[in-house]
Specification:
By secondary structure, this protein is mostly helical. It has 4 helices and no strands. It has one domain. The protein starts with a helix and ends with a helix.
């Protein structure tokens, strides 16, 4: 779904919607999810819990998504690269698909 929507947005040339709330939410998510991902992975290893380690990986993916969103919005505002947000969404979709299908 994310891949199809991103491709459609790229083809149509739609611009990302931005607001201060969006940027703040992405920044807060990044600040919270990085240490949370690290702590979950570390504790999961100590407890030999694959579920907690996997949850830590998901938190890490969320942090990476927030970082890509912030970078793409900065590129849009600084350089007018409207496609950066859509390209970031495609990268997230590819990474999530690869992680989901990994054994």
């Amino acid at each position: 779904m994310l891949t199809a929507e991103s491709v459609t947005a790229l083809v149509s040339g739609s611009r990302p919607g931005t607001s201060a709330i969006t940027v703040i939410a992405a920044a807060v998510s990044l600040a919270v999810l990085i240490p949370l991902a690290y702590a979950k992975r570390r504790l999961g290893k100590q407890m030999a819990s694959r579920a907690l380690q996997g949850d830590g990986a998901l938190s890490g993916i969320g942090a990476a998504t927030s970082l890509l969103a912030l970078i793409s919005l900065a590129l849009y505002h600084a350089l007018g690269w409207w496609w950066a947000d859509r390209a970031a969404a495609l990268a997230v979709a590819a990474a999530a698909e690869a992680w989901h299908t990994a054994p």
